[in-house]
Amino acid sequence: MPVRFVVVQSNPDLFWCSCARNIMKEYVDQHEHFVLNWVTEPKYGIDNEVTESKMMKYEFALRHLDDSSMVVIVDCDVFVTDPLVSPLDVWDNFAHKDTSMILSRDAHWQMGVPVNSGVIIMKPDGFTRQILETVVKKGRLSPDMHGNLYNAKTLVDQPRLTFELRELGQLNTKPVSPCEIHSHVTVVTQRVMNSFYRIPMSFWSGFHYDPPESKWRVGDWVSHVTGMDATQRVKAARIFGNGCPGIKDNTARLGKLTTDGKAKVHN
Q1: Cα 52 from chain centroid (whole Å)
Q2: What is the C-alpha separation between 212 and 191, in angstroms, rounded?
Q3: Among the four 42, 50, 114, 127, which has the fewest Cβ within 10 Å?
Q4: What is the pLDDT of residue 200?
Q5: Helix (H, G, I), strand (E, B) or coil at 152
Q6: What's the rounded Cα separation, in Å, for the pair 54 and 44?
Q7: Which domain of life is it from (predicted)?
Q8: Residue 37, helix vs strand vs coil
């Protein structure tokens, strides 16, 4: 089955995006029938326009859905760290016959943010088209109306997607388990497809509350270097920058740098 990766680069000048582009291209080139669509957003001068434009990844995916391919939406700060893993493997292991979408928990899934939209695997069907059309049409949640529901004051697509899935009965907003299964949506742990790598001592104290299952370990499919300022993300890009021009291969150090003591370093 063809697999189409849709990646939106919201900050064209930032270093980690070029690293992610190179790593994703190498990954796609290793797998037959994988297609990479790296969508570059225009540069805007107003923050609201920048954040609203993140909906481009949903618009692009919606335009390119067809009955023969699977679509994987990936944030531009997601790095493939195990190229042997395929989204088809994830689908085979966790989807049932009516599954339309697989996404992962957020690190703060027990603190009011049930899912993270950094990596989403979707098959083209009526439910997928409905949810994408709704998210694109309605746009971000209004902080004036919804407050900081699902981090609506700082995030764009993820709060709206979470809200609409809840409205359709496809998501528990007060989950009690790391995984959940609904008629069209399956939620998996971050270790499966969206584990976080955060630089310690960053500006957001919430990093300290990331549960163990959310933290990146050697052998995970991808690492999402989310929730950090540009300086910290550049540091993360240098760590995961294997294959990027001018960047030393630091992958041997990853086991020491992760906060999880069970991580193993590749020989």
Answers
A1: 17
A2: 9
A3: 42
A4: 67
A5: coil
A6: 12
A7: Eukaryota
A8: strand
Please enumerate, as own/partner, the contacts of 230-239 that have beta carbons within 8 Å and a separation of 24 or more: 230/11, 230/14, 232/198, 232/199, 232/202, 233/14, 233/16, 233/77, 234/14, 234/15, 234/16, 235/199, 236/16, 236/77, 236/197, 236/199, 237/15, 237/16, 237/19, 237/20, 237/79, 239/197
For residue 215, the 8-state DSSP code is: B
Phi-psi region of 93 (alpha: psi -120 to 50; beta: other; left: phi over 0): alpha
Q: Is the dihedral of CA 71, 73, 77, 82 positive or negative?
A: negative
Alpha helices in the chain (DSSP H): 15-30, 47-52, 56-63, 87-94, 126-138, 143-146, 157-167, 190-193, 230-239, 254-257
pLDDT for residue 180: 94
Nearest C-alpha neighbor of 195 from the set 176, 229, 223, 154: 223
Q: Which residues pair with 131 in a beta bridge?
A: none
- Contact partners, residue 162, CB within 8 Å, separation at least 6: 113, 114, 115, 150, 171, 173
Verdict on whether the full-model pTM lies above 0.90 = no
What mean pLDDT is predicted for residues 123-151?
91
Segment holding 34, helix H or strand E: strand 34-40
CA distance 115 to 118: 9
Q: Which two tokens stand for residue 209?
A: 């509350």
pLDDT at 248 exceeding the cut of 50: no
pLDDT at 256: 40
pLDDT of 95 reads 94
Residues 168-195: tens digit of each pLDDT:
999 998 899 889 999 999 999 998 999 9
Q: What is the pLDDT of residue 265?
A: 34
| 179 vs 11, higher pLDDT | 179
Give residue 234's pLDDT band: very low, low, confident or very high (50, 70, 90): confident
Phi and psi for 7 in degrees, rounded to 5? Answer: -120, 130
CA 266, CA 64: separation in Å to the nearest integer?
A: 37
